[in-house]
Specification:
single chain; Aspartate Aminotransferase, domain 1; six-stranded antiparallel β-sheet; three-stranded antiparallel β-sheet; about 25% strand; disordered N terminus
Length: about 160
């Protein structure tokens, strides 16, 4: 079975360094390319990526980082493991990363300045410009993002209720 863009995606990804392949995957997702990128252990189906890291292991590591912050509680929303402050969600686990709500300008800057940050798209559906996703192959490395988690918590806590 052949899909639009499959040959193009394979040709481009074979020429790129692994850090650039993710950008190609995003571009392929926009043209609805379905492909397996050899050697990366990821399968692309639109914007949904399947990671080698198990969700329970990821959740355990993220719980260890987020639940020690004051006022944070865990729960589920739309099938996603989520983290709340004052009953408002500021972070959630989706796919191979953690979605995080930050001021739009900060979120935009992070998307351009860090390779492991992309727009948050749970289930392949784009959300607001305030949401980003931080992807880390090793879930234990989310401790490095503690400052961003704290900024998200403060931003959501200060936001007005609808």
């Amino acid at each position: 079975m052949s899909f639009p863009g499959l040959v193009f995606a394979r040709a481009i990804t074979s020429l790129l360094e692994p850090t650039h392949v993710r950008r190609c995957v995003r571009a392929c997702a926009k043209i609805r390319c379905y492909t397996r990128i050899e050697g990366l252990s990821t399968i692309t189906s639109g914007a949904a990526l399947i990671s080698n890291v198990s969700n329970s292991s990821r959740k355990t590591h993220i719980d260890a980082v987020l639940l020690k912050l004051p006022g944070v509680s865990a729960g589920k929303i739309n099938g996603l493991d989520a983290y709340f402050v004052n009953d408002k969600m500021f972070a959630c686990i989706s796919g191979k990363g953690v979605g995080l709500r930050l001021p739009a300008a900060v979120a935009r800057e992070l998307q351009f300045s860090r390779d492991n940050v992309e727009p948050f798209q749970p289930g392949g559906i784009a959300t607001s410009s305030e949401w980003i996703q931080i992807d880390r192959p090793d879930a234990g490395e989310y401790e490095k993002d503690l400052e961003l988690f704290q900024a998200s918590l403060a931003f959501v806590k200060a936001a007005r209720s609808r």
